[in-house]
What we know:
The protein is of the alpha/beta class. The chain has a single domain, classed as Rossmann fold. It contains eight helices and five strands. It has helices at 29-42, 59-67, 73-97, 108-117, 122-128, 145-155, 174-195, 207-222, and strands spanning 17-22, 47-51, 101-105, 137-142, 199-202. Strands 2-3-1-4-5 form a five-stranded parallel sheet, sandwiched between helices.
Amino acid sequence: MMKKVRGLGMGKTYPGKLFVVEGNDGSGKSTQVYLLKKWLESKGHVVFFTEWNSSELIKESTKKAKKKNLLTPATFSLMHASDFADRYEKLILPHLRAGYIVLCDRYIYTAYARDMARGLDLEWVRNLYDFAVKPTVTLYFQAPLEVSISRILSGRPELKYHEAGMDMGWSNDPVESFKIFQGIIKRNYDEMADEEDFEIIDATRSIEEQQSIVREIIKAKLGRYKSPYRRSNRTIFSGRF
């Protein structure tokens, strides 16, 4: 059982809403958050979207360090924490303060799951992110390991070195290493689910079924929320399948 550690940021609230999607590679979460974004915008909400490891300040340095194989598990963790902190202070937090709906394709729980898979202490990792506000809701797209792995392997010609967890020395075979890595990550997510109040979505259901469930959850979380900035509803997106 994971010990829940809360930092300063987790007790704060802001006018906006923060909706987060998490899950293993191949869980289908990115498709679902894209559909959610389009649906929210069709309802007139102004939405800000951000994804993991996308800070312009850090991205190039991370790429160079990966290419030269300079990253230990701790430095890997610190690079991603720096990336997140930059996006959080410049993008996520200002939009929450302004009352926007913020959608995150991966949030701090990705760091928890992946960094622990690389052998780092959970409390140490949590302390890196203790400034981050707790999401309004975290949608965890849970798929059997064989399903998510099959989706990835069928769609990519080859796995990247760090993506496959090759830096950990589990196996010289990228596919086998990837399976081991993703298996540990999934176990970490599953253990976090209750502790972190994840809304679990069965990622083996159809895209339409999942999106219907997602929208019902989001409707409930929105409550009486009204965005201070309204989009024109003249953009055509029916929100139906």
